[in-house]
Write a structure and sequence with these properties.
single chain, 503 residues, six-stranded mixed β-sheet, Beta-lactamase, 36% helix, alpha+beta, globular
């Protein structure tokens, strides 16, 4: 055989070898990915041959269910709630083409009936010829609390168009309410008419107000004075007490800058000294800026991290696995180029400004931790998983996420936060017959823009039990006292979560 033929033979053998390797790669390693792809038409037809499981709130209210059709795809996914926008950011949607979102995505296998948990149902179907529906997901959300949260957020008294609210049971971590605005109607997105679904999605994705964004878990904003709760915790862990006097005054100029820090109003802590409790009650900027500088950047960062800042792997959904991802809250950089502490940045950070950023979920977790004696429970949305016959296959078993402070420090923080509501800036969060504590926050952001209004708080019932902790954030609040409306809404949500209010 001459040289050219030998070379051609070698090339052909190599090509056959590569083809063999690729075939095995596709069949052995990529088969499952192709089979489960959101864009696999055959899988779509097969998936729609059986009804997808129901997603429901407390009391059995269906939030997502499958409706029989005469199409090739035998079932249409619908979202039947009259207030569908209230639930959409949590429930998400399951389109024919493309990826699911929210609980529809995180519990997809169970809802579709393909989860290993439902193996017995599939075996039974092989003998009976039935097409048993997927499993059902029961959420922890309380219908009344969700309704109040959405109504008050959307109809807020300041005309704000963007914001979020989250309420949690401090004792268990069960999410009682999760609302974000603006929201959307997921029904057009699940249409079997591809053009209709694509047009609906295109409209939403191009909307500058980002209605598809869950502002409670997937967005961060400067938290303003709510971060003073973290500084207070750091102080209490480092030799301070509620009645310890700390420097205050009308003006404070941090080292390294001529830019002064002032209080929101002249009558707030004008004296040279103020107790730690009074400083939080009146939200004294000059006191907390000086306190943060005194404690040091490392202590501030370490305390924030103990409460959950910087965690980038938290999800809220099923306690066993998965859920809605929660982006990390950040304390930001407080260093000069040479590595030394930037005292001016530290002072501003101690007020929840500079580069500090926080999610609404993190705010709710801070309040819940204080209410629960220093024990922070892992938040969750999935209360139960039921098979097609509604037999429980999973019930949430609350888990501790971390212990940021001990019960002694938590008790002192609670005392200080109750004073904020009873005597200070958070009076609008009061609930008749309940003990309420919290912290307001007004956060400056873009130059010339109205500030964000925050409130984090907790409520105890008449038995002394912590029944709810919540955080409300309103973006760009006009008219001054930006946090007052957030405090009012928080109180109403917690009242509803405790079963004392709502529609």
């Amino acid at each position: 055989m001459n040289a050219p033929l030998r070379k051609a033979g070698v090339v052909i053998l190599v090509l056959f070898g590569l083809l063999f390797v690729n075939l095995n790669y596709v069949q052995a390693y990529k088969a499952d990915a192709y089979r489960t792809s959101d864009y696999n038409g055959r899988v779509q037809v097969a998936e729609y041959q059986r009804p997808r499981g129901v997603i429901e709130a407390d009391g059995g209210q269906p939030l997502a269910q499958s409706k029989p059709t005469d199409d090739t795809l035998k079932y249409l996914r619908i979202y039947p709630s009259k207030q569908v926008e209230a639930w959409a950011p949590v429930v998400g949607y399951k389109p024919v083409n493309g990826a699911a979102t929210g609980i529809e995505r995180s519990e997809n296998d169970f809802l579709a009936g393909t989860s290993d948990t439902l193996f017995a149902d599939r075996v039974s179907d092989m003998f009976t010829g039935d097409k048993t529906g997927g499993g059902n997901v029961v959420l922890s959300l309380k219908t009344k609390a969700q309704a109040v949260a959405y109504r008050e957020l959307v109809n807020n008294q300041r005309g704000v168009g963007k914001g979020a609210a989250i309420a949690i049971d401090p004792r268990t971590g069960a999410v009682q309410a999760m609302v974000t605005m603006p929201s959307y109607d997921p029904n057009p997105l699940t249409s079997h008419d591809r053009k209709t679904a694509a047009a609906a999605y295109d409209k939403l994705i191009k909307d500058k107000d980002q209605p598809l964004l869950n502002r409670g878990t997937a967005d961060t904003k400067p938290p303003g004075s709510t971060f003073k709760t973290i500084i207070s915790a750091a102080a209490l862990q480092n030799g301070y007490d509620v009645n310890t006097e700390i420097p205050a005054g009308a003006i404070y100029r941090p080292p390294g800058t001529t830019t002064p820090i002032r209080n929101a109003e002249d009558e707030v802590c004008p004296g040279a000294q103020v107790t730690l409790k009074e400083a939080l009650t009146t939200s004294c900027n000059t006191a907390f800026a000086q306190l943060g500088v005194k404690l040091g950047a490392d202590t501030v960062k370490r305390t924030a991290q103990a409460f959950g800042f910087e965690q980038n792997d938290l999800t809220v959904g099923n306690l066993q696995d998965g859920g809605l991802p929660v982006v990390a809250s950040k304390t930001g950089d407080m260093q000069n180029p040479d590595g030394s502490t930037d005292q001016a940045a530290l002072a501003q950070s101690s007020l929840g400004q500079a580069n500090v950023r926080m999610t609404v979920m993190q705010g709710a977790l801070i309040a819940a931790t204080v209410a629960n004696g220093g024990q922070q429970m892992r938040p969750y949305l999935v209360q139960q998983l039921l098979d097609a016959d509604r037999r429980p296959l999973y019930t949430a078993n609350p888990k501790t996420l971390r212990n940021p402070v001990d019960s002694n420090v938590a008790g002192k923080l609670k005392e200080m936060m109750v004073s904020v509501v009873e005597n200070g800036t958070g009076k609008r969060a009061r609930i008749d017959g309940m003990e309420v504590g919290g912290k307001t926050g007004t956060a400056q952001n873009a130059a010339g823009a109205d500030p964000h209004g925050w409130f984090i708080g907790f409520a105890f019932n008449s038995k002394g039990e912590p029944v709810s902790a919540a955080c409300v954030m309103l973006e760009n609040v006009p008219g001054g006292h930006a946090s007052a409306e957030a405090a009012r809404i928080t109180g109403l949500i917690m009242k509803a979560a405790a079963g004392q209010g709502g529609d």
